[in-house]
Structure formats: C-alpha cells, structure tokens
Design brief:
- The protein has helices at 16-41, 48-81, 86-122, 127-162, 165-178.
- With 185 residues, the chain is mostly helical.
- The two termini are 27 Å apart.
C-alpha cells in the first residue's frame, strides 16, 4: 500500500484489534479495485494497469484475507466466547452471524477468483461470466458493508474493552504466526 502523508499509522501485532480494523480497510480497498476493473472492462481486454490491479486484488483475497478470517475465528471469537460479561454475551448472536457471513464471503470469493483467473488467462470474459463476476462483487460489497460495520463498531470495541492484556498479546502472537512472523512478548 502506498504511504500517504498524514495518514494514520497502521497497527502492529501489539495492537491486534487495531490490525483487524486495518485489514478491513485493505478488504474495502481491494474490493473496490475489483469492482472498478469489472465495471470499466466489462469482460473485455484488460489494460496493463487493469491486469495488474486485478491480479493484485485476486491474490489479496486468495492469500491474505483468509488469514484475517482465521484471526477472528481462531483467535478473537473463541476468547470472547469464554468471557462472562453482559456486553460480550450480548454480542455472541452477532458473532455467530459474522461467522456465517465468512462462509458466504469465502464461497463468493472462490467464484470471483475462478472467473478472474479465467479472465486473466484468456484475455476476455464472456458476457454472461462478466455479468456474474460483477454481480458477485456487488453482493460481496453489500455483505462487507454490513459485516465490517458490525465488527468495527460493535465487536472490536467490545473486545478491546473486555479482553485481558495477555489475551490481546496471545492474539497478536497467533496473528503473527499465521503470517510467518515471530512476535516478541
């Protein structure tokens, strides 16, 4: 990602909740890239810039986004489930819904990836497949709009307040391990 002067510095593994929010900004950015390329090219020949953008966005959702889902489902959510706190208990139904949305998003991303790779390989995408590609992206955009708002505005603030420092440190270490980075304690 390019550096923007005056932009908020991204979080690191010492602030795993902040990192999860930062990842949401990348999800939004790469999804917008996919939508923009699909709307501009409509399955036609891709410019060099569009091709590079499509490849990068598909790679992000294939390689990095699943780690974000694992960060939530394997590190954050299980720890929240163990907390006996009214605010956290009230959030559990929302968390179950978020996990179901992860399954839906993964399925859609699988189809987007297949269609995107086909487009990159063949140089063109037939009209019906180009329409399906764009429809999937619009559905993902709608899903993420709600999903990310719930996590950013409800789950993450509650988690930040309810989790212990040792839980946050463990989550950060696990997130690092998923990315092949040893996080010092």
């Amino acid at each position: 990602m390019p550096i923007v002067i005056g932009a908020k510095r991204e979080s690191d593994f010492t602030d795993p909740i902040g990192m999860l929010g930062d990842c949401h900004r990348r999800i939004e950015m790469f999804l917008n890239v996919l939508v923009r390329v699909a709307e501009q090219a409509r399955g036609g020949t891709l410019s060099e810039e569009q091709r590079g953008a499509l490849e990068a966005a598909l790679r992000y959702f294939r390689e990095a986004a699943p780690k974000h889902t694992a960060d939530e489902e394997e590190s954050l959510f299980p720890r929240l489930r163990r907390i006996e706190n009214t605010d956290v208990r009230a959030l559990m139904v929302r968390i179950e819904s978020l996990e179901e949305e992860h399954v839906c998003a993964d399925r859609s991303h699988g189809e987007v990836d297949s269609l995107g790779r086909l487009w990159l390989k063949d140089g063109l995408l037939p009209a019906d497949q180009a329409a399906r590609f764009l429809t999937l992206l619009f559905q993902l955009r709608d899903l993420y709009r709600h999903h990310i708002a719930t996590e950013d505005n409800e789950v993450f603030p509650t988690a930040g307040a309810a989790l212990s420092a040792s839980d946050l440190q463990a989550i950060g270490s696990e997130m690092g391990a998923r990315r092949g980075i040893k996080v010092s304690s």
